[in-house]
Amino acid sequence: MPAQRWFVRSMGDHDTHLGSYNPTSRSVHALCGVEFVALAVGMPPKPGPLPGAPVDPAQICPKCRRVAR
Questions:
Q1: DSSP of 6-45
Q2: What is the spatial distance between Cα 68 and Cα 46, in angstroms, rounded to a whole number?
Q3: What is the pTM of this model?
Q4: pLDDT of 60 higher than 90
Q5: What pLDDT, in 10s, does the model give residues 25-54?
């Protein structure tokens, strides 16, 4: 199983998910069951995982948070 990393789905609350990137489908498969194309983040914005865990707990998907513990 690939390493699980944090990916941003949208800038909305509870929409940062823990999952793995699938290069074939170019999407993230989150532990909560959501599949999505990750939002580019950072300065300058780049696609890919966050460098670590989200700083703001309000960003984290509640289902992914439970699985990550």
A1: EEES-SSTT-EEEEEEETTTTEEEETTS-EEPPPPBTTTT
A2: 24
A3: 0.90
A4: yes
A5: 999 999 999 999 999 998 899 889 999 999
Rounded to the nearest 10°, the torsion over CA 7, 11, 14, 18 is 0
Q: Are 64 and 30 in contact (CB under 8 A)?
A: yes
C-alpha 10/C-alpha 67 separation (Å) is 20
Cβ 38 vs Cβ 48: under 8 Å: yes
Instruction: Quote the domain boundaries for residue 11.
Output: 5-68
Which tokens belong to 42? 């950072």
* Domain count for the chain: 1
- How many residues are there in the chain? 69
Give the C-alpha separation, 26 to 7, whole Å.
13
Average pLDDT over residues 13-29: 96
